[in-house]
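Dear U.,

For the methods section draft, I wanted the exact inputs and outputs in one place so we can describe them consistently. I've listed the two proteins in the order they'll appear in the manuscript figures. Please don't edit the token lines directly; just add comments below if something needs changing.

First protein:
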Amino acid sequence: MTERITISPTHHYRNNDKLIGIGNAFWDMSERNGLAGIVADLDGGVLRTAPGHEFIGEGHEFVNFSCCSYLDLDSHPRVVEGGIEALRRYGVLDHCIARSRVQIPAMLELEDSLGELFGAHVVCSIAASTATFGLLPLIASGHLGDGTRPLMVFDKNAHVSMANVKPVCADETEVVTSPHHDLDFIEDKCRKYARVAYVCDGSDSLGGYAPVNELSELQDKYGLLVYYDDSHSLSAYGERGVGHVRTHSPVLDERTITVVTLNKAFGTSGAAIVLDGYDKETLRVIERFGGALNYSQLLNTAAVGAGLASAEIHRTAELTTLQNRLHANIGLFDSLIHTDQSGGTYPIRLVPMSDETVIEAGRQVFEAGFYVSPVFFPIVARGTAGLRVMMRAGQTEEQIRALCAALIAVGARPAAPVPGEDGR
């Protein structure tokens, strides 16, 4: 009998044995404690658990503090009506054919509207992860850029939607991982390689922003290409909601590529690739060879209509009003709970917990009427677990104060009192 070959993993760019072996225990514990797989109905901003919630029972009311719709635009009447109106106007939900073959004008209308909003070329995608999977291999091969295959430097904390593309990029060029926003590491690579591309979050899913200005200096000095996913700051940050990167980066040309999801603070669905300085020929390469950016999976008509409505809100004073409400709520939270993110404009706060206490803490907060998601390995590094709190414009002062009281009860660190507030 011929001996069969057993294949050993290489683990050059990922390690599912480690991810699943360690992470699944946390997920199972979350589910056993009623903190994962929750099904609930939304009524007036409050959620009620649906039948079948084993841990806490049917009808438990709670406020969701783990939602990325930072401006609550996903339930805005004009956004909802925009989706309905587009369906009526075009008479089809999905026109399922590659955009390079035949397309109805709906998505082109949205791309034009977003292009005017951002002041750049925009290509839409069904999701930011889809856009990333299509774009990064084209950067790796030099077809998106100056024609030179770059060294691909992935930030250690790059979102999984980017990190998962490492093996594909490695089939086109050399791939390395840098410490989190380590400018010295990046500059050292820029000195040694003819071309370098740095892949990172413009706004991190666990709080904080990329050092955009410092990276722009490396862009000017070495021609560094920076690929940002700025999904968490779109709409919530900047004039007309253009996000952190486009607000602060002085390098808005072919050396900066930004991807943003439209289903967080923008309040709709899909994603946008924001491109400066690229000609129509390069845009055609993206459309034709960017994987799922072209074939089958396009934005449906309802998502396009909702996106057009949200884009119009972004052109009005209402957006500023919503941003100000969000920032006031962030400030209120920071005045009550101390986190490493305190004092910033970013809408996410990570309340530190240990690996051993994070699930029980999340369960107690949920019992008190608030859902905050426990985060653990591989979402964060081992030993750095916490409760992720997401602030929104529509949250009330009463809800925020009650949440903070529940968090302090499970070990969150109260904020230091402001001098003078105690009357002394």
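Second protein (the one for the lower panel):
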Amino acid sequence: MPLPLPRPDAVDVRIAVVSLVSGVALWALGLHMQIDRPLSYGWTLVPLFVMAGLELLRRTAPQTALACGTLALIADQFTPGNLATVVMFTDLVYAAVLYGTPAAARRIPITTGLITVAMTIGFLAWFRDAEALLIGAVTALVSFAPATTGVLVRSHREAAEMARLRAEQTALLAEMDRTQAVTAERARMARELHDMVANHLSAIAIHSTAALSLDDPRTTRDALTVIRENSVEGLSEMRRLIGILRDSSGDLEPVAAPTLDGLRSLVENARANGLDVTLDDTRAPGAETPPAPVGLAAYRIVQESLTNVLKHAAPGPVTVTLTQPQGALCVLVTSPYGDTPGPRAPGSGAGLVGMQERAALLGGTFAAGPEADPDAPAGKVWRVAARLPVDPADQEVTE
């Protein structure tokens, strides 16, 4: 079954109708372009109607329309001719370049240019008269001029389309960057919220459980004291986080962000919560102070490690070790391996993920897991180790 022909465009229909009516009007008025032709004046309508019908295909089948239009124009040369037929042919040449394939758009201007040159030279050699140049000029106006016009219009349209595609790609990339930025900021806020509050809330949960389970006024009073201290500190951290969210200056961290100098206070707070913590800072006295993002990451890793010890570890000594070899700050936290016998707070695993993300954002490494230790009661200790580059050139991304 043959495929149905595509429906002609409404603009093409209007062009065909107007051209046909104009050609018939010229024919009725007796206006023609040539004299002394083999066919009579009535035959002028045949190429006219054929060319008008081909105008319906100027957009849907431009190359076919041009090929048939060329034959109709040649046939028109055997009749007195009609100006509307020639004008419609120029439109078919223009449409074939504009709407045809890229190969046709390259080939048609070259072909029409060669035809123009050949016609000019041929008639000049035949007539041996300078007036033969007019034939070449008419040929150029009928074929080469509309072809070059189609090339220019097509080039402008393709350039506009490329500009539109680039604009869409730019908008898409901008949207992807915005989405990634929002995702990264949400992850950063989640880490900050977890690291700021989890330690204090864990201590509150554990001591409140102990106070409820033990009917001892002194134990209850001590637990309430620890609960109050952690509540106040947690509230302070929450206010700092709110300050980060409300800050419109573009700074990633406010000036009050924790540093390595706050580790001693952090260890003292852990001791108040019942942990046997020792801070072993083996960095050289004259060692270069790590950049603020590195110091903050180290502080948060120690803070989260102590929180996990408080929630999950068995009783025993906990050691926090800081070293600073060439080009890096190393953090090591060891704690007893095993479950705590008393009350414990549930964990979600977000702490280990957050510590790993902090190290990865700085281009460092992170590892956490049990490690054999014959001196430990269970024969194992839980070891958290992070290596954070100090040189900004070695850091992939900073928070």
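Candidate sentences for the figure legend, describing the second protein: The radius of gyration is 43 Å. The mean pLDDT is 82.

Thanks,
Y.
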